Protein backbone atom coordinates (compact mmCIF):
# COMPACT_ATOMS: atom_id res chain seq x y z
CA UNK A 1 0.00 0.00 0.00
CA UNK A 2 0.90 3.67 0.12
CA UNK A 3 1.75 3.54 3.81
CA UNK A 4 1.92 6.99 5.37
CA UNK A 5 2.04 8.65 1.93
CA UNK A 6 -0.86 10.18 0.09
CA UNK A 7 0.11 8.75 -3.29
CA UNK A 8 2.20 5.91 -4.64
CA UNK A 9 4.33 8.44 -6.49
CA UNK A 10 5.29 10.20 -3.25
CA UNK A 11 5.95 6.89 -1.51
CA UNK A 12 8.17 5.82 -4.40
CA UNK A 13 10.07 9.13 -4.37
CA UNK A 14 10.78 8.69 -0.66
CA UNK A 15 11.84 5.06 -1.14
CA UNK A 16 14.76 6.14 -3.32
CA UNK A 17 17.55 6.20 -0.71
CA UNK A 18 16.70 2.64 0.24
CA UNK A 19 16.25 1.14 -3.23
CA UNK A 20 19.28 2.95 -4.62
CA UNK A 21 21.32 1.60 -1.70
CA UNK A 22 19.99 -1.90 -2.32
CA UNK A 23 20.76 -1.71 -6.03
CA UNK A 24 24.27 -0.39 -5.38
CA UNK A 25 24.91 -3.22 -2.92
CA UNK A 26 24.69 -5.71 -5.76
CA UNK A 27 27.75 -4.23 -7.48
CA UNK A 28 29.61 -1.82 -5.24
CA UNK A 29 32.10 -2.78 -2.57
CA UNK A 30 32.22 0.34 -0.36
CA UNK A 31 35.24 -0.77 1.68
CA UNK A 32 37.41 -1.56 -1.34
CA UNK A 33 35.74 1.17 -3.38
CA UNK A 34 35.44 -1.10 -6.39
CA UNK A 35 32.63 -2.17 -8.67
CA UNK A 36 32.09 -5.77 -9.69
CA UNK A 37 29.63 -6.41 -12.49
CA UNK A 38 27.94 -9.79 -12.71
CA UNK A 39 29.67 -12.19 -15.10
CA UNK A 40 28.46 -11.46 -18.61
CA UNK A 41 28.39 -13.88 -21.56
CA UNK A 42 30.53 -11.52 -23.64
CA UNK A 43 33.80 -9.69 -23.12
CA UNK A 44 33.36 -6.03 -22.23
CA UNK A 45 36.97 -5.32 -23.19
CA UNK A 46 36.26 -6.16 -26.83
CA UNK A 47 33.16 -3.99 -27.19
CA UNK A 48 33.86 -1.30 -29.78
CA UNK A 49 30.65 0.68 -29.54
CA UNK A 50 27.60 0.93 -27.38
CA UNK A 51 24.02 1.57 -28.33
CA UNK A 52 21.37 2.31 -25.75
CA UNK A 53 17.71 1.95 -26.67
CA UNK A 54 14.66 2.80 -24.57
CA UNK A 55 11.48 4.91 -24.30
CA UNK A 56 10.34 7.76 -22.08
CA UNK A 57 12.07 8.12 -18.75
CA UNK A 58 14.21 5.04 -19.42
CA UNK A 59 15.50 6.83 -22.54
CA UNK A 60 16.57 9.75 -20.36
CA UNK A 61 18.45 7.36 -18.06
CA UNK A 62 20.22 6.10 -21.20
CA UNK A 63 20.97 9.69 -22.20
CA UNK A 64 22.77 10.29 -18.89
CA UNK A 65 24.67 7.03 -19.39
CA UNK A 66 25.99 8.26 -22.73
CA UNK A 67 27.89 11.05 -20.96
CA UNK A 68 29.16 8.66 -18.30
CA UNK A 69 30.31 5.87 -20.62
CA UNK A 70 31.96 8.26 -23.05
CA UNK A 71 33.75 9.95 -20.17
CA UNK A 72 34.99 7.05 -18.07
CA UNK A 73 35.16 4.24 -20.64
CA UNK A 74 36.11 6.40 -23.66
CA UNK A 75 33.68 4.38 -25.78
CA UNK A 76 31.39 5.92 -28.41
CA UNK A 77 27.74 5.65 -27.35
CA UNK A 78 24.60 6.22 -29.35
CA UNK A 79 21.27 6.60 -27.60
CA UNK A 80 18.05 5.94 -29.47
CA UNK A 81 14.34 6.18 -28.84
CA UNK A 82 13.13 2.63 -29.51
CA UNK A 83 10.26 3.63 -31.80
CA UNK A 84 12.66 5.59 -34.03
CA UNK A 85 15.41 3.02 -33.97
CA UNK A 86 13.26 0.06 -34.94
CA UNK A 87 11.89 1.56 -38.14
CA UNK A 88 15.11 3.25 -39.15
CA UNK A 89 16.72 -0.17 -39.36
CA UNK A 90 20.23 1.21 -38.92
CA UNK A 91 23.23 -0.73 -40.22
CA UNK A 92 25.20 -2.28 -37.36
CA UNK A 93 28.71 -3.71 -37.19
CA UNK A 94 28.55 -7.18 -35.60
CA UNK A 95 29.85 -7.40 -32.04
CA UNK A 96 28.58 -4.10 -30.69
CA UNK A 97 26.90 -3.90 -27.32
CA UNK A 98 23.20 -2.98 -27.33
CA UNK A 99 21.62 -2.06 -23.99
CA UNK A 100 17.84 -2.02 -23.52
CA UNK A 101 16.54 -0.06 -20.56
CA UNK A 102 12.99 -0.73 -19.41
CA UNK A 103 11.34 -0.62 -16.01
CA UNK A 104 8.59 -3.01 -17.05
CA UNK A 105 10.66 -5.07 -19.48
CA UNK A 106 7.55 -5.24 -21.68
CA UNK A 107 7.61 -2.03 -23.74
CA UNK A 108 6.67 -3.03 -27.29
CA UNK A 109 9.04 -0.74 -29.18
CA UNK A 110 12.01 -1.57 -26.94
CA UNK A 111 11.33 -5.28 -27.40
CA UNK A 112 11.15 -4.89 -31.18
CA UNK A 113 14.47 -3.01 -31.11
CA UNK A 114 16.01 -5.84 -29.06
CA UNK A 115 14.87 -8.41 -31.61
CA UNK A 116 16.34 -6.31 -34.42
CA UNK A 117 19.70 -6.05 -32.62
CA UNK A 118 19.82 -9.79 -32.00
CA UNK A 119 19.12 -10.46 -35.65
CA UNK A 120 21.98 -8.06 -36.44
CA UNK A 121 24.52 -9.86 -34.25
CA UNK A 122 24.78 -7.43 -31.37
CA UNK A 123 25.51 -8.45 -27.81
CA UNK A 124 22.33 -7.67 -25.92
CA UNK A 125 22.08 -6.51 -22.34
CA UNK A 126 18.77 -5.78 -20.61
CA UNK A 127 18.45 -3.34 -17.75
CA UNK A 128 15.04 -4.04 -16.24
CA UNK A 129 13.13 -3.88 -12.99
CA UNK A 130 11.15 -7.07 -13.64
CA UNK A 131 13.48 -10.09 -13.84
CA UNK A 132 11.01 -12.43 -15.54
CA UNK A 133 9.99 -9.85 -18.18
CA UNK A 134 10.12 -10.49 -21.93
CA UNK A 135 12.99 -8.05 -22.55
CA UNK A 136 15.05 -9.76 -19.86
CA UNK A 137 14.25 -13.25 -21.14
CA UNK A 138 15.12 -12.39 -24.73
CA UNK A 139 18.41 -10.62 -23.91
CA UNK A 140 21.72 -12.44 -23.55
CA UNK A 141 22.26 -10.90 -20.14
CA UNK A 142 20.34 -8.82 -17.61
CA UNK A 143 21.26 -6.23 -15.03
CA UNK A 144 18.53 -5.63 -12.46
CA UNK A 145 17.31 -2.48 -10.82
CA UNK A 146 16.06 -3.41 -7.38
CA UNK A 147 13.46 -0.65 -7.27
CA UNK A 148 10.67 -2.99 -6.20
CA UNK A 149 7.22 -2.64 -7.78
CA UNK A 150 6.62 0.82 -9.22
CA UNK A 151 2.89 1.61 -9.16
CA UNK A 152 2.81 5.33 -10.00
CA UNK A 153 2.53 5.90 -13.74
CA UNK A 154 5.21 8.57 -13.46
CA UNK A 155 8.50 6.71 -13.14
CA UNK A 156 10.68 7.86 -10.24
CA UNK A 157 12.58 5.18 -8.32
CA UNK A 158 12.96 3.08 -11.47
CA UNK A 159 14.79 6.02 -13.07
CA UNK A 160 17.28 6.62 -10.28
CA UNK A 161 18.01 2.91 -9.84
CA UNK A 162 18.57 2.68 -13.61
CA UNK A 163 21.05 5.53 -13.22
CA UNK A 164 23.05 3.79 -10.50
CA UNK A 165 23.25 0.55 -12.50
CA UNK A 166 24.38 2.53 -15.54
CA UNK A 167 26.99 4.38 -13.48
CA UNK A 168 28.37 1.02 -12.32
CA UNK A 169 28.30 -0.29 -15.87
CA UNK A 170 30.24 2.76 -17.08
CA UNK A 171 32.93 2.09 -14.47
CA UNK A 172 32.93 -1.64 -15.34
CA UNK A 173 33.39 -0.83 -19.02
CA UNK A 174 36.11 1.67 -18.15
CA UNK A 175 37.98 -0.91 -16.14
CA UNK A 176 37.61 -3.66 -18.74
CA UNK A 177 39.09 -1.31 -21.33
CA UNK A 178 41.82 0.05 -19.08
CA UNK A 179 40.40 3.53 -19.58
CA UNK A 180 39.90 4.40 -15.92
CA UNK A 181 42.50 4.71 -13.17
CA UNK A 182 42.13 2.93 -9.86
CA UNK A 183 41.90 6.33 -8.23
CA UNK A 184 39.02 7.52 -10.43
CA UNK A 185 37.15 4.29 -9.80
CA UNK A 186 37.60 4.78 -6.05
CA UNK A 187 36.39 8.38 -6.26
CA UNK A 188 33.27 7.43 -8.21
CA UNK A 189 32.57 4.51 -5.86
CA UNK A 190 32.85 6.78 -2.86
CA UNK A 191 30.46 9.28 -4.46
CA UNK A 192 27.97 6.54 -5.36
CA UNK A 193 28.12 5.04 -1.88
CA UNK A 194 27.25 8.43 -0.36
CA UNK A 195 24.36 9.11 -2.74
CA UNK A 196 21.55 7.45 -0.73
CA UNK A 197 22.42 9.58 2.32
CA UNK A 198 22.57 12.78 0.23
CA UNK A 199 19.15 12.02 -1.25
CA UNK A 200 17.70 11.25 2.18
CA UNK A 201 19.08 14.58 3.40
CA UNK A 202 17.47 16.42 0.52
CA UNK A 203 14.10 14.67 0.91
CA UNK A 204 13.78 16.24 4.36
CA UNK A 205 13.39 19.58 2.58
CA UNK A 206 10.27 18.56 0.68
CA UNK A 207 8.36 21.54 2.14
CA UNK A 208 10.68 23.96 0.30
CA UNK A 209 9.80 22.33 -3.02
CA UNK A 210 6.16 22.48 -2.01
CA UNK A 211 6.54 26.25 -1.60
CA UNK A 212 8.24 26.69 -4.98
CA UNK A 213 5.53 24.59 -6.64
CA UNK A 214 2.79 27.03 -5.63
CA UNK A 215 4.27 29.62 -7.98
CA UNK A 216 4.37 27.20 -10.88
CA UNK A 217 0.89 25.70 -10.76
CA UNK A 218 -0.57 28.74 -12.56
CA UNK A 219 1.96 28.69 -15.40
CA UNK A 220 0.98 27.70 -18.91
CA UNK A 221 4.48 26.78 -20.01
CA UNK A 222 7.59 25.83 -18.09
CA UNK A 223 11.14 25.50 -19.41
CA UNK A 224 13.81 23.23 -17.93
CA UNK A 225 17.47 23.86 -18.68
CA UNK A 226 20.61 21.87 -18.00
CA UNK A 227 24.01 21.05 -19.46
CA UNK A 228 25.98 17.83 -19.61
CA UNK A 229 24.26 15.18 -17.53
CA UNK A 230 21.97 17.96 -16.29
CA UNK A 231 20.44 18.13 -19.76
CA UNK A 232 18.70 14.74 -19.63
CA UNK A 233 17.58 15.65 -16.10
CA UNK A 234 15.97 18.78 -17.56
CA UNK A 235 14.20 16.60 -20.13
CA UNK A 236 13.08 14.21 -17.41
CA UNK A 237 11.81 17.09 -15.26
CA UNK A 238 9.75 18.42 -18.16
CA UNK A 239 8.30 14.98 -18.87
CA UNK A 240 7.35 14.48 -15.20
CA UNK A 241 5.58 17.86 -15.10
CA UNK A 242 3.68 17.23 -18.36
CA UNK A 243 2.58 13.77 -17.32
CA UNK A 244 1.06 14.57 -13.99
CA UNK A 245 0.21 18.29 -13.97
CA UNK A 246 -0.71 18.67 -17.69
CA UNK A 247 1.33 21.88 -17.85
CA UNK A 248 3.25 22.23 -21.07
CA UNK A 249 6.94 21.86 -20.31
CA UNK A 250 10.08 21.59 -22.42
CA UNK A 251 13.57 20.53 -21.51
CA UNK A 252 16.43 22.20 -23.35
CA UNK A 253 20.18 22.00 -23.40
CA UNK A 254 21.05 25.36 -21.82
CA UNK A 255 23.37 26.17 -24.72
CA UNK A 256 20.42 25.95 -27.11
CA UNK A 257 18.62 28.81 -25.38
CA UNK A 258 19.88 31.41 -27.83
CA UNK A 259 18.94 29.24 -30.78
CA UNK A 260 15.22 29.65 -30.25
CA UNK A 261 13.60 29.04 -26.89
CA UNK A 262 14.74 32.36 -25.42
CA UNK A 263 11.98 33.91 -27.56
CA UNK A 264 9.44 32.30 -25.20
CA UNK A 265 10.76 33.94 -22.08
CA UNK A 266 8.78 36.57 -20.23
CA UNK A 267 7.67 36.99 -16.63
CA UNK A 268 4.97 34.34 -17.02
CA UNK A 269 7.41 31.54 -17.84
CA UNK A 270 9.08 29.71 -14.97
CA UNK A 271 12.53 28.42 -15.96
CA UNK A 272 13.82 25.53 -13.89
CA UNK A 273 17.61 25.27 -14.01
CA UNK A 274 19.68 22.22 -13.13
CA UNK A 275 23.09 23.63 -12.27
CA UNK A 276 25.43 21.73 -9.94
CA UNK A 277 28.91 23.18 -9.48
CA UNK A 278 30.96 21.42 -12.14
CA UNK A 279 33.11 22.43 -15.09
CA UNK A 280 30.03 23.72 -16.94
CA UNK A 281 28.63 25.79 -14.06
CA UNK A 282 29.68 29.19 -15.44
CA UNK A 283 28.16 28.47 -18.84
CA UNK A 284 24.77 27.64 -17.38
CA UNK A 285 24.96 30.49 -14.87
CA UNK A 286 25.42 32.93 -17.74
CA UNK A 287 22.33 31.48 -19.46
CA UNK A 288 20.48 32.13 -16.20
CA UNK A 289 21.49 35.80 -16.36
CA UNK A 290 20.10 36.01 -19.90
CA UNK A 291 16.81 34.51 -18.76
CA UNK A 292 16.55 36.85 -15.79
CA UNK A 293 17.35 39.87 -17.97
CA UNK A 294 14.18 39.01 -19.92
CA UNK A 295 12.06 38.74 -16.81
CA UNK A 296 12.06 34.91 -16.67
CA UNK A 297 11.26 33.47 -13.25
CA UNK A 298 14.25 31.27 -12.54
CA UNK A 299 14.09 28.36 -10.11
CA UNK A 300 17.74 27.52 -9.56
CA UNK A 301 18.77 24.06 -8.36
CA UNK A 302 22.45 24.04 -7.43
CA UNK A 303 24.63 23.52 -4.36
CA UNK A 304 25.71 26.03 -1.76
CA UNK A 305 28.68 27.22 -3.77
CA UNK A 306 26.62 27.45 -6.96
CA UNK A 307 23.79 29.41 -5.37
CA UNK A 308 26.34 31.75 -3.78
CA UNK A 309 28.17 32.39 -7.04
CA UNK A 310 25.07 33.48 -8.95
CA UNK A 311 25.50 37.20 -9.77
CA UNK A 312 21.82 38.14 -9.39
CA UNK A 313 19.68 36.10 -7.00
CA UNK A 314 17.16 33.84 -8.70
CA UNK A 315 13.40 34.03 -8.14
CA UNK A 316 13.84 30.84 -6.09
CA UNK A 317 16.95 28.82 -5.37
CA UNK A 318 17.74 25.64 -3.53
CA UNK A 319 21.22 24.58 -2.45
CA UNK A 320 21.27 20.81 -2.74
CA UNK A 321 23.87 18.80 -0.83
CA UNK A 322 27.29 19.09 -2.48
CA UNK A 323 28.17 15.92 -4.37
CA UNK A 324 30.80 14.78 -6.84
CA UNK A 325 29.70 15.98 -10.32
CA UNK A 326 29.61 12.40 -11.61
CA UNK A 327 26.66 11.50 -9.35
CA UNK A 328 24.93 14.89 -9.59
CA UNK A 329 22.28 13.71 -12.11
CA UNK A 330 21.12 11.07 -9.61
CA UNK A 331 20.62 13.66 -6.87
CA UNK A 332 19.16 16.35 -9.16
CA UNK A 333 16.48 13.94 -10.36
CA UNK A 334 14.84 14.27 -6.94
CA UNK A 335 13.89 17.98 -7.00
CA UNK A 336 12.32 17.68 -10.45
CA UNK A 337 10.26 14.69 -9.32
CA UNK A 338 9.07 16.48 -6.18
CA UNK A 339 8.36 19.67 -8.09
CA UNK A 340 6.12 17.84 -10.57
CA UNK A 341 4.38 16.10 -7.70
CA UNK A 342 3.63 19.28 -5.75
CA UNK A 343 2.52 21.21 -8.83
CA UNK A 344 0.12 18.38 -9.66
CA UNK A 345 -1.23 18.40 -6.10
CA UNK A 346 -1.73 22.17 -6.30
CA UNK A 347 -3.66 21.66 -9.54
CA UNK A 348 -5.66 18.75 -8.12
CA UNK A 349 -4.83 16.26 -10.86
CA UNK A 350 -4.75 12.48 -10.40
CA UNK A 351 -1.07 11.96 -9.65
CA UNK A 352 -0.94 8.17 -9.70
CA UNK A 353 -3.29 7.70 -12.66
CA UNK A 354 -2.77 10.62 -15.06
CA UNK A 355 -5.23 10.87 -17.93
CA UNK A 356 -4.48 9.00 -21.17
CA UNK A 357 -1.40 7.24 -19.78
CA UNK A 358 -0.71 3.56 -19.16
CA UNK A 359 2.01 2.29 -16.83
CA UNK A 360 3.36 -0.04 -19.43
CA UNK A 361 3.12 0.57 -23.18
CA UNK A 362 2.90 -2.98 -24.54
CA UNK A 363 1.23 -2.00 -27.80
CA UNK A 364 2.51 0.59 -30.24
O1 LIG B 1 8.71 0.22 -18.72
P1 LIG B 1 9.59 1.15 -19.52
O2 LIG B 1 10.74 1.68 -18.74
O3 LIG B 1 10.03 0.53 -20.82
O4 LIG B 1 8.65 2.37 -19.89
C1 LIG B 1 9.10 3.41 -20.71
C2 LIG B 1 8.16 4.58 -20.68
O5 LIG B 1 6.88 4.19 -21.10
C3 LIG B 1 8.05 5.21 -19.29
O6 LIG B 1 9.30 5.59 -18.79
C4 LIG B 1 7.13 6.46 -19.33
O7 LIG B 1 7.73 7.47 -20.10
C5 LIG B 1 6.81 6.91 -17.91
N1 LIG B 1 5.41 7.20 -17.79
C6 LIG B 1 7.62 8.13 -17.50
O8 LIG B 1 7.24 8.64 -16.26
Question: What labels would you give this structure?
Answer:
364 residues, alpha/beta, five-stranded parallel beta sheet, 12 strands, 16% strand, binds 5-amino-5-deoxy-1-O-phosphono-D-mannitol, carbohydrate derivative binding
Protein architecture, described:
45% of the residues lie in helices and 16% in strands. It is of the alpha/beta class. The strands form 3 sheets. Strands 4-3-5-6-7 form a 5-stranded parallel sheet, with helices on both faces. The chain has a 5-stranded parallel sheet with strand order 9-8-10-11-12, sandwiched between helices. It has a two-stranded antiparallel ribbon with strand order 1-2. Strand 3, helix 3 (56-73) and strand 4 form a beta-alpha-beta unit. The site of 5-amino-5-deoxy-1-O-phosphono-D-mannitol (M6R) has 15 residues, from helix 3. 5-amino-5-deoxy-1-O-phosphono-D-mannitol is lined by residues 55-58, 102-104, 107, 110, 153-155, 243, 360-361.
Amino acid sequence: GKGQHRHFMLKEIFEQPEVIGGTLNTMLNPAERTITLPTLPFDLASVGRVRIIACGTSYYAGSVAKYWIEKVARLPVEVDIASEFRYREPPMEPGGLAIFISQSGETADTLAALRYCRANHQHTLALVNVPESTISRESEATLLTLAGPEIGVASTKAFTTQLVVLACLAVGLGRARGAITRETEATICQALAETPARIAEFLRRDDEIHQIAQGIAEARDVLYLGRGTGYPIALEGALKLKEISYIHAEGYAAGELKHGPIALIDDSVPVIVICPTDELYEKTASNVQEVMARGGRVVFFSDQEGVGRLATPAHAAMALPTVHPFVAPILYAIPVQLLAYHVAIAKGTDVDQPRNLAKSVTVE
